[in-house]
Amino acid sequence: MKKHFSVILLIFFGILLVYYISRNIEEFRSLTFVNPIYLIIIAVGHLLGIYLNGLFLKYILEPFDKKISNIESFKVSLISTLGNYFLPVGTGAGIKAVYLKKKFKVSYTDFISTLYGNYIIVFLIGSFIGLISLIFLRSNSLNKQYWILLFVFSLVFSTMLYMAVFGFPKWVINKTNKKNKIVILISSIINGWNTIVKNRKLIKRLILITIFNFIISAAITYLAVLSIDLHINIWALLLYTSLGVLSFLLNITPGSIGIRETIIIFSSTVIGFSVPQVLSISIIEKGTLFIVLLISWLLVQKGILKNNLTNESK
């Protein structure tokens, strides 16, 4: 039911976007004059982001004594991203979990621990940068949206900071120490995440990778803004990128398509863009990523990436 809902919601956003553009076609004329050089650089940025996601996976598996090469971690990340954007919500994570289980004997509980570890660190960095951005954009504090964003970012940051520093509370672990399959599963996930937290060197490395990934995302947005002859200051750009990160908290459509745009449109008075401008930027970002993933998908269908994955894991 959840999968059908996500697809229906995606179709709804798609129809809404087409209707809005058709009613405001003049506002989107700038899309026809985009310099292809910008699109090529943005495409390379997307590939770098996928590579960094793979690198994150490679390092976060180390506490569980699982080692994969940089090339294979990139390919696993790519296949997972393909699933996230072309198939119902959760498919990408499912593909990754099954592959790691089959090829590297990574248990599903360990995988979920790494997945939560990924979310915690990404949301921690994203919310922190979002808070810093809001401080420098305090001239917009008369807007109701500003205070809502400040509250949401503060809540997410404080929660993720606690989880990153202390792990799950001990009383949660004690409470889950019972002979029940679901409770045992939860306990295993908690213990797995706490294993990750204890490795301070690993946490620093994961935070560094996440920061680099954030910078790449910001650069992609900046190039998309320039490509349609708009301008944005550094703090508005960082806030824009942070909102994109936090949109995955509401990951109910493939690739958070529509959700991300709705959140940014809600915050447009703080960022300084109109609705057509936000949608134009999103079309360039998502359109370029779509082409990159489509080409990658064709390579997978031809067996090029799939065969390489199989061969490297032997």
Can you walk through the features of this model?
The protein is mainly alpha-helical. It is 77% helix and 0% strand. α5 (108-136) packs across α8, α10 (234-246) packs across α11 (259-266) and α13 (275-301) crosses α14.
Which key terms come to mind for this protein?
disordered C terminus; globular; single chain; 314 residues; 14 helices; 77% helix; mainly alpha
Total strands: the figure is: 0
- Strand fraction band? under 5%
Termini Cα gap: 37 Å
- Multimer state: single chain
Low-confidence stretches: 309-314
**How many distinct helices?**
14
Radius of gyration: 20 Å
Mean pLDDT: 79
Largest sheet: none
Shape: globular
Class from secondary-structure proportions: mainly alpha
Order of helices and strands: HHHHHHHHHHHHHH
Q: Helical percent range?
A: over 70%
SSE blueprint:
Layout: H1 2-23, H2 36-60, H3 70-86, H4 91-104, H5 108-136, H6 144-166, H7 170-175, H8 181-198, H9 200-227, H10 234-246, H11 259-266, H12 268-271, H13 275-301, H14 304-312
Helix pairs in contact: 2-3, 2-9, 2-13, 3-4, 3-13, 4-5, 5-6, 5-8, 5-9, 5-10, 9-10, 9-13, 10-11, 13-14
